[in-house]
User: Fold these one by one.
Assistant:
Number 1:
Amino acid sequence: MIDHYGRIIDYLRISVTDLCNLRCIYCMPEEGVKKLRHGDILSVEEIEEIAAAAAALGIVKIRLTGGEPLIRGGILDIVRRVAHTPGIREVAMTTNATLLPRFARKLKDAGLTRVNISVDTMDPERYREITRGGEIEDVMRGIRAAVDVGLTPIKLNAVLMGGINEENIRPLIKMTEDADFRVRFIEVMPIGECSDWNKERFVSIEKVLDEEPALRYSGTDGVSKLYRKDGSKGSVGLISPISNHFCPACNKVRVTSDGMLKPCLHSAEEIPLRGLHGEVLIAAIRNGILNKPLKHELSRDGSESRRGMNAIGG
Ligand code: SAM
Ligand code: SF4
């Protein structure tokens, strides 16, 4: 459907859990987050109902995210039900990939279209530091599993952090040389865990072009500016939520794992969906889309959202 500002909103992200098997320094507290009671997170049936209501309003693409969606019990059932919702053409997932070797084939069979995989560095030691204990080899196995079953094209998302992974930019770009990986660098946003980080960590995405001058501009893909190295099979996307707001091109709304509709990632506004059914549920989502803010005020000083990315569903 079309919001008050003429934007076509056809994309919904649903967080299926705010828990995770990793503890990325910018996203999760070291000790993890308090587990919500089972009854406090959306059930499989509620997710299916929300997907159907959203589809009735013109949502055609759903992304399942978290937390780590692959640790959510019943994830295959969720994928299957969302994929079979009339009107939904694409069901994607954002994952850290560590559990993909076990799940990739089953996800594909359940109807998942493709995956975005978060990997901020290819360096084993740095990966362990950033994720507080993750193994890059698990991610590589996950990427291979996704390629093997055709959960493609695969976007590899890297959050750029000043003083932490700038020297890992070139090895990530190298991934695009021999295969059609779409590596996307995104500016770290001051939200949740990193809202009080030192300003030097928030470097502009232009840093990627300084590190790899051989990148040539080749157009846009949604909110990414695309670049390529001559002869590369894949591409490099630069996403700059801080230095260049892309609110006029925003086409999405989000639902948190406890059932709150968030019309804008960086706004504090949340609309409760739990307990609503049928036309009442559709009306609540319609209202949220219609009143989606024109833009947010995200800057290096912070976000207005009261939740971190693990709880909102990045
Ligand atoms: N666990 C899954 C994963 O990491 O792909 C899905 C959830 S995670 C919250 C989704 C995305 O949000 C990841 O790509 C992550 O890097 C990104 N993210 C989390 N916190 C962020 C922040 N403060 N700024 C920018 N991106 C962030
Ligand atoms: Fe987990 Fe993803 Fe957050 Fe990392 S970014 S802690 S993998 S939810």
Number 2:
Amino acid sequence: MSKRICVYCSSSNILEEKYVKAAREFAEAASLLGYTIVCGGSVMGLMGVIIDTMIEKGSPVEGFIPGFMEDMEIHHKGIKQLGVVGTMSERKELLRQNSDVVIAFPGGLGTMEEFMETFTLKRLGQFDGTVILFNQDGFYDQLLSLFEHFVKNKFLNSNYRDSLVVVNSVEDLIVAVKNSKKERLEAKHYLPE
Ligand code: AMP
């Protein structure tokens, strides 16, 4: 089944090669499987790598970029379907509305903000897609420890924490995307225990 995959990822252009390689391998596999990538539409960092790879393979990419970023000339000029929106919030909403699954690749503050918003909206029944954290080489181990700390101290329901799909390799990431399904949660099931 053709899936629409939203990617949140680093905007840094000076990352270690292993992060670039994994992003490229993921996009190659997504292209072979006939998936569509939905993203922020910028040319920067890992997003730029994923978009370049998809376009090279002739595969579909849809982007949503706020006007101020287009003015900064950081939009990817190869994307045919690029929606220019007013704000970062609108962009995040459109990314969710147009995707079946979201993946947080290794990233910084922007990636974290996008991931956390979607992960919390899922708990409130406001996003139906699967949320995946790509914990490449333990990149997000400290975040997962923080979630464990939340659970231990009863600030987070363990079932909800466990509903997050965490994968460590590109192979497992692709399997997780293949297995992903839309599911609406009811907030009452995920109150802290
Ligand atoms: P970063 O992880 O900081 O490199 O940022 C990665 C992506 O997050 C980029 O595509 C940015 O456009 C986006 N981003 C940065 N700051 C924010 C924010 N406050 N809200 C939503 N997205 C953001």
